[in-house]
Amino acid sequence: MPETASLIGFALVALGMVLTPGPNMVYLVSRSISQGPLAGLISLGGVALGFVFYMLAAAFGITALVFAVPFAYDALRLAGAAYLLWLAWQAVRPGGRSPFQVKDLPVDGPRKLFLMGLLTNLLNPKIAMVYLSLLPQFIDPAAGSVLTQTLVLGFTQIAISVSVNAMIAIAAGSIALFLIRRPFWMTVQRWLMGTVLGGLAVNMALDARR
Q1: Could you tell me which of 116, 73, 98, 110 has the C-alpha nearest to residue 175?
Q2: Is residue 90 in some structural domain?
Q3: For residue 78, is it within any domain?
Q4: Into how many domains does the chain fold?
Q5: Is the pLDDT of residue 71 over 80?
Q6: Is 182 within the bounds of a domain?
Q7: With b meaning 16 or more CB within 10 Å and e meaning fewer, what string describes 168-203?
Q8: What domain range is 61 assigned to?
């Protein structure tokens, strides 16, 4: 099992990532606004399956990496920090967009909604980075099975992401209307996410425990 501090730290990173605009959030919000919350939740089912695919692939890959190239953790840590800084800049840069500024999508059936959610997540570079660069630094080979730690952290990320995205999908219409009527809060939302991600990136870059 991961140490409590590592589990909490990774949970905070996962929360910061899911609240940051990306392909998954943009698609789910667009779908919920254009076709209703149920369509957004069906799409989220496909997104969740994509998370499981990434988690299982990373679990066995990271396990092999730990035994083959232990010093690769520093490279992964710095790559993860750089990616978080890039996400922070995307959130606060001039002309940046909120995920609630969306376009209408055509009406699709449940099967296509699910498959589009799955495809959107599998092609999402942010999720690949979570599992290939961010997750490994919260694993301590001395704390027990690397595979077990990876699975526990992976399921933690999935639980947080699915829960938050479900609430966003259900409330997407109301949130979008609120932000459209109050542009100031749309700016606050972007800067808040940028600040959180920037702080996580700095902390990650300075953490040389591995």
Answers
A1: 98
A2: yes
A3: yes
A4: 1
A5: no
A6: yes
A7: bbbebbebbeebeeeeeebeebbeebbebbbebbee
A8: 4-97+109-136+145-205
